[in-house]
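hey can u check if this looks right to u? its 95 residues, i copy pasted from the old doc so theres a chance i mangled smth
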Amino acid sequence: MKFNRNVYHSLMMISQFGINMLVPIFLCSFLGMYIDKKCGTTFWIVILFFAGAIAGGTNVFRFAKKIYEEPAVTRKHMKAGQEEEKDGKKREDKN
């Protein structure tokens, strides 16, 4: 049975997006609940929830940026290789 690596790679990336977004939100929310219980306030959970959301969004943005920069490099190498093949064929035709 042959496995399709692209499918597993895509599932891994989707999971990574979720983890990168949810972990900072949960950590900051629980920290906010803890501080609110200790101090007797009610606003720290809201502030830290949004701080976690911003941190998670930043993580997802960096991860997506890294993913989309890699194929561009690969395309450049493939394009350069194709141009070299064309040049090689032109030289063979001339000889």
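Residues 5-94 form one domain.
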